[in-house]
Amino acid sequence: MIIANTYKGQTLAVFGLGRTGITAAKSLTKGGAKVLAWDDMQASRDAAKTAGITLTDLTSADWSKIDALVLSPGIPHDKPKPHWTAQRAREHDIQIICDIEIFAREIAARAPERRPTIIAITGTNGKSTTTSLIGHILKACGRDAQIGGNIGRGVLDLDDMHAGTHYVLELSSYQLERTYSLRANSAVFINLTPDHIDRHGDMAGYRAAKVRIFDNQQAKDIAVVGVDDDNGQHLATELIAKNGRRIIPISGRRALGRGVSVINGKLYASINRKSVEICDLRKAQALDGQHNWQNAAAAFAAVQGIGLDPKAVGKAILSFDGLAHRMERIGKVVNVAYVNDSKATNAEAARQALRAYDDIFWIAGGVAKDGGIAPLATELSTVRKAYLIGEAAPAFHRVLTKQNVDHKMSGDIRRAILCATRDALASGAKNPVVLLSPACASFDQYKNFELRGDAFRAEAKAIIDMFEAEKAKGRAA
Fold first, then answer.
1. Full-prediction pTM beyond 0.90?
2. pLDDT digit string, tens, across residues 304-360
3. 170, 213, 254, 291 — which has fewest CB within 10 A?
4. Which domain does 415 fall in, by range?
């Protein structure tokens, strides 16, 4: 654990006692701060007590004596409606922060020669894969790398820092809007498409939260910007105009005169006036599709300047196993592959999977985001048939009917995967893919996208095991 010594002697309210809230309370307490911890939910308070956290009911606390409010990133402080703790904080001119800001101040308090290297990643889609890939590269190249933030461990739960540590942090817009002091030695901005508009008000507010990742960078720091969308192109132009750091544009689909890009599946770096082939991403274990090629380009660019051999980085990229629920390859029945992309909770994320394969038997549905799958109308040529589940099924049916895409109202994942397997086996396609890429949140049928993906994986493995058992019987006979 990282101890928050910089708040010693201060009084901090910690509201939201989930994973990061409990860790923040412990870190602050060990560092000598007085912590007033609370949550509206009894179950969360019980979990905090079990973890050794002393509770203080913030509804009756003296807010005039509180120095800062550590508010869980998932709880709004402004839009669509400020939480009551945020209102109290504003009434008493109390700064609202999150655990990332506590972490950032601990780094800033250290002498420069004792500070760790910080690689921070944000974007609407792809940030978890990119974060994990960077961590994998660093470890494969013999570096001390720890991964956390919005993925895996909370940032204050990471091992204590030393000068040789590399912290690789996935940062959401919710975290960045409450972070003021973080200086990223490499800051990665992958892409930006509409999401979380209710929280940030509009795209301008969402963008403003994301670009905070570049705050506090210095001339020798690296800013990596994905330029495969208009938002990224404009951002790269703005940062280059400021000329305050090293700007590395990256693309997963076109050549760049300077930067890191993928051309016909091959990763090239053109950073020091010389283009060098790094690796052939078509040989990667878990990086299907142009969006993952962009993630690979971002990961390579992020580790520039820390003394890694480019060829060793290329080898590490090819050996990356990928992440669960993000175009996760599960296995095959005959020539039918199963891919779990449950993390695709919006149309833009599903778009990437639809572009990655040729003959898709697509399982989609759940709780739709604004626009549903209408933005995917131009991406459906690879879909041989769709199997609709959950609350969004009727709306998706109307879109697919209009686009003349064959589809079936399946209702749930079990029925969908059974029908998709039958149809894929009978299709005559060379490499059919049964793809769960819902373009929806999961909350109508599952608590989270992980549980939805687990259900798909379990059903796929059951089918694979059944076919393997039948094959074994045939060999025995």
1. no
2. 888 899 999 999 999 999 999 999 999 999 999 999 999 999 998 899 899 999 999
3. 254
4. 328-468
How far, rounded to the nearest angstrom, does the alpha carbon of residue 198 sit from its chain's CA centroid? 19
User: How does 28-49 read in b/e, with b if 16+ C-beta sit within 10 Å?
Assistant: bbebebbbbbbbeeeebbebbe
Task: Tell me the CATH number at 403.
Answer: 3.90.190.20
Q: How far apart are CA 176 and CA 169, in angstroms?
A: 11
Q: Residue 192 in contact with residue 126, Cβ under 8 Å?
A: no
Neighbours of 79 (CB within 10 A): 14
Dihedral angle of Cα 461, 467, 469, 471, to the nearest 10 degrees: -150
State the Cα–Cα distance between residues 225 and 184, nearest whole angstrom: 14
Based on the fold, state whether residues 314 and 366 are members of the same structural domain: no
Q: Which residues contact 291 (CB under 8 A, 6 or more apart)?
A: 125, 126, 252, 352, 355, 356
Q: If we measure between CA atoms, which residue out of 209, 196, 176 comes closest to residue 100?
A: 176
Out of 74, 97, 120, pick the residue that ends a domain. 97
Instruction: Please indicate, yes or no, whether residues 84 and 162 belong to a single structural domain of this protein.
Output: no
* Mean predicted confidence (pLDDT) in 39-43: 97
474 part of a folded domain: no
pLDDT (tens digit, 9 = 90+) per residue, 137-148?
999 999 999 999
Same domain membership, residue 139 and residue 19: no
Same domain, 275 and 392: no
pLDDT of 477 > 70? The answer is no
For residue 323, being part of any structural domain is answered with no
| Sign of the Cα pseudo-torsion (416, 419, 424, 427, in order) | negative
Residue 106 token pair? 């601990």
Categorize the per-residue pLDDT at 160 as very low, low, confident or very high, splitting at 50, 70 and 90: confident
Considering the domain architecture, whether residues 136 and 275 belong to the same structural domain is answered as yes
